[in-house]
Structures are given as C-alpha cells and as structure tokens.
Amino acid sequence: MKNTRFDLSTLKNWVQDKLPASATTRPEIPIYVAAEDRSAGGFGEAAQRGLDELEARLPPPGVVTQPAHARTWRRPDRLAPSESAGGGMVRDADGAQRPHYWGHRERLRGRFLSGGHQAMPEYELLELMLFNAIPRIDVKPLAKRLLLAFGDLNGVVAASERNILRVEGATDRVFLQLRIVEAFAHRMGQAKILNREVLSSWSDVVTYCRTTMAHRDTEQFRILFLDRKNRVIADEAQGEGTVDHVPVYPREVTRRALELNASALILVHNHPSGDPTPSEADIEMTGRIMAACGALDIVIHDHMIIGKDQEVSFRSLGLIEG
Questions:
Q1: Whether 205 and 299 share a structural domain
Q2: Where are the alpha helices (DSSP H) in the chain?
Q3: What is the model's pLDDT at position 321?
Q4: In a domain? residue 84
Q5: Keyword Protease: yes or no (predicted)?
Q6: N or C: which terminal CB in the chain sees fewer CB atoms within 10 Å?
Q7: Domain-terminating residue out of 65, 90, 120
Q8: 285 belongs to a structural domain
Q9: Count of domains for the chain
Q10: Residue 87 has pLDDT above 50, yes or no
C-alpha cells in the first residue's frame, strides 16, 4: 500500500480484505485525511500514516479476535435519569458517573410531555427549541444568554438574524429554528381571524397583532382587509421601514383594497421604541388614508399602534369616529 493514492471505496475494500473472515470485532481504524488530500479527490501521505498503523495492528491471518470486554455505547442525551453522584456528576442506569448534563435532554423532554409548558421556566422552553438546531451540546447557557439579550421568548423569536448571531454560541441553524417557531405562531394567530367576522372578537385581532408585530426592531405597516360582513379576507404587510418610520402611500392602500373588493380596513403598525403613543406623523398619515378611502366608500374601522407591552387604538382615542 506504500505510495498509493486511492478513493474511499478502495480503502474500505482493502481493510475488509485484511480482516480475518471469522473476526467478531474490528480494530479501530485511525485514518488521517489532510485538506489537500480531500481536495485532490483521494488520500495521500496523511492517509498513508493511518494505513501503516492499521496494518501493524491487524491480527495475523486465521486468528479470531474477541473483544476484551463488551461495551454498550449510549448517546449522552439518552442516559437514564438517576440520583446525583455529586461534584457536578450524575450516576447513569449502569452505575457509571457522568457529567450532570448527560441525560438532561431526555429528562427535559419527559417533563414537558408529562407536565406541559406551564410549569417550565422560559429558558427551559427555549432549550427545547434549540435541541434540533444544536445536537449533543448543552444549550442551557445559550438559552439564558438569548433571554438576557432579548428579554423574553417573544423577543428572542422575533429578533433579527444580525442580532441573534451577535449572541455567543448562536448559529445560522439557531436563527432558522427560531424563525420556524415564529412562523408557526403567526400562522396560528392568523387562522383565528382570517375569514371570520372580527369586530365581535376584537381580542383575537389584538392578540394576533401583538404576536406578529410587538417585538419587531423596525416599523411595519399592515392592513387587514374586510368584506361587507366584516370578515377578514386578507392580511398583508404594506410597508417595511426603519426604527421610527415606515412609508405608506394612500394611493397604494386604495388600489389594493379595490383589487380585493374590500369594503373596510383595519390599519396596524408598530413602534419599535415600545411606546405606542401616536405621533403627529401617524395622525396625519391616518387622515390621508381615510380621505382617500372615504372617496371610494371604503370604511376605516380603526388604526392600532402596537408597542412592546401595550397598544393604542385611534378609535378609542377619538381620532376615528363614525
């Protein structure tokens, strides 16, 4: 095998030929693959060192090898929960001492399935979300860092990719997992209002708007389009802006309402600052939209501004009448 270049398939065949036909166990095969070997499409000098070591450790022909002792390998997150062994260690089902976090994932899943989320702190729920993104690593420290950075679960799930990746230990997979959770939450909230009469179930509208917009770090302007029976026929974002401004054009609002044959609108936008108090610009913009829609007999039921912890309604403030 000296000075031979070969692919992985050739390597496997060579190893199989070297093993006794009656062998009941295989030796560990140390194979060192250098980056330049991989890029060249084969294995070179780095792999040769591993092969030399392997050849020296193979049993003579005709010798049947037996394991020195049987071992059962377990994934760390599959160890059975057990009593503490002290010193940051736990004792698994076989009596061996393991680091305290071994088996933690299985225990956490069990607690969630048996008791639900109500009795679990936020960082443990976040851990459960992170399990798929980061396998076989203790994610509790990352969960706590994310909550410290963004305040609560809503803040974590709604945080931008740039801000998530600033947190130590967060990766692209973490951001993707959080975005998936956010999408599920939005779809569930949207399902409660789409094709339903919403003026008599206003709390569902408010809850949906909070979930969708309260923790955004830029302004977004959304419109709920309603038919003649005040059922929501569409929910659309009309504009994305900066931290304190989003451009909205009355002409585009009325054009889309006519395309959808909408009879009424509910306007919604957020204030990333957290304070939902309407600004002079908010009031002026609402007036221009109302004037454009009024000329087409399209009713503006309300304009809500969503803050971090509360929201305000133009109708409740007396800024929209009728």
A1: yes
A2: 8-18, 35-39, 45-57, 104-115, 122-130, 140-150, 153-158, 161-165, 172-191, 202-213, 250-259, 280-294
A3: 82
A4: yes
A5: yes
A6: C
A7: 120
A8: yes
A9: 4
A10: no
